[in-house]
Amino acid sequence: MAAPVSLQVEFGGGAELLFDGVKKHQVTLPCQPEPWDIRSLLKWIKQNLLKERPELFIQGESVRPGILVLINEADWELMGELDYKLQDQDNVLFISTLHGG
Amino acid sequence: MCDATGDGGGCGADTEPPRRRRAPGTSHPRTCMKCGQGTAALVIRVGDPFCRACFREYFVHKFRAMLGKNRVIFPGEKVLLAVSGGPASSAMVRQVQEGLSREAAKRLRFVPSLVYVEEGAVRRQSPEQREQTLAQIEALLQATGFPYHVLHLEEALELPPSILQPGPGTSGPSGPSYKKAVDSFIQQQRQDGDSGSSLPGHSSQDTPAAPPATRGLPDAAQTQELLRSFEAAGTATAREELLEMLRTHLIVQTARDRGYAKVMMGDSLTRVAVKLLTNLSLGRGAFLAVDTGFTDQRHGDVMVVRPMRDYTAKEIAFYNVFFSVPTVTVPPLFTKHREKPSIHQLVERFLLGLQEEFPSTISTVYRTGEKLSPEPAKASSESQRCLLCLCGLDTEGEEELALEPTLILEEPEAGAESKAAYIPLLCYSCRLTFKELGPLDTLPPYVRAEGQRRIHRAEMEQNQENQESSKG
Known about the structure:
The structure holds 2 protein chains of 2 kinds.
Chain A (H helix, E strand, L loop, with lengths): L4 E8 L11 E6 L8 H11 L9 E2 L2 E2 L3 E5 L2 E2 L14 E7 L5
Chain B lengths: L39 E5 L3 E4 H19 L7 E6 L3 H14 L10 E8 L8 H18 L3 E5 L25 H15 L27 H13 L3 H22 L4 E3 L4 H13 L6 H5 L2 E2 L6 E3 L7 H10 L20 H15 L3 H9 L30 H4 L24 H9 L8 H27 L1
Parallel strand pairs in B: 3-4, 3-6, 4-5, 6-8
Antiparallel strand pairs in B: 1-2, 7-8
Main location (chain A): cytoplasm
Organism (chain A): Cyanoderma ruficeps (rufous-capped babbler)
Keywords (chain A): Cytoplasm, Isopeptide bond, tRNA processing, Ubl conjugation pathway
């Protein structure tokens, strides 16, 4: 049983427009049997934070191509991407590099 | 790219496409491939981890290398930087700031100003939201310390018809050579002695001393007129093209009026790749090199330069996060209810999706674009130059069948200004866009004025020819 995890989740580059224009979100992920990773965080975001048009943010179980992910200001490609195990007080930043739509 | 490993995971067998196939980062923290010491902060290209310090050096060097290699920005020259508030142009401004703050030997030696085109009207922003965006942008522009100009897209309605003609003068090799310009600049500096001024060349009088006060938003009537043009356009693709055209013309006119011979635009490598395939799909194959290349000389006196085209969108985004480069986000161009997405959007989605599985897709498209020549875009005379994009007409010698989709056949009323009469003035691609734009009275006045002038001129020439041939 994993303890609740507190995170700062941020959106930038236009991705915030899908979240009521709010860039910074303090979130607390509830207890769950499995440890939280980015994969399960994305599911949680889709259910709890995303206001509209999830297809503009999520594709399959990952983010849509063109959206970059930074974990504690480092490229998620260095951290195991979807499999990264979230720690308490982590900062996860999603930046859209898409032009429009 | 299929690494079938014998366990049935060959091409097409997967239901879920395999995402990046790099080694999972179990061994993090990884170290920088460049210095071998710092903790890697991002992966550029495939599998090249960089630490922050090395990434910064790499990024800053690339900008200087781009300008150094191409040698088109002369020392002391006034350069207008087109800023949208987006990531690439904001990073570009930061590179110029970096370059100007270097020690003398390495300092960039041109004189920058900024220009911003406010497009809230066509991005469905309320007047309050527009004011808000403007305030953010002005704060960003002011913080640079460079002179700046703020324009509204509505001002495109007042552009002079002459923006559709190349300006007189320095195009190509007729201008002074780079080396000569540098030599005379250095001499000039010696003569100026140790006046110790940090900015080279120009007296400060020709740049506005105080930033121009924003004159508030344009009249509601003008906004309405502008919106009418965009709403009359039948497709999202045509609207994108219209916006791009109006914005470019506004920026080039500003440069022309105020004596800037160069305009820097912030197209990134990713954007260039998307633009290459987009413009190919739009029928602009002949003009890809000028539409996306480092230099674009179609406007004659004002050269458009794209110094950011070596940076991927990812590099730019990371640079901006790491080094706190401020950006301002604006909503995208409006679309109509249940409308198909523009070709621009489709191509972007397609390329980025492909890139996800095949990480060299975008750089391959970009590098292929490098091989193209700007020659086909050159126009020999006014009658051979596209009214809208100023490129050389690519319709000559085409078989009639190929041009058929570009013709406008239905137009009953005679005598009145006819949309069909404009078709011969346009290149293949602009014909297609023009057809999707609204009726003539929804076009920007400068386009109509210049179009009418050319139509009359063509008629007169035709009449003269007829007279001469009847004499003979």
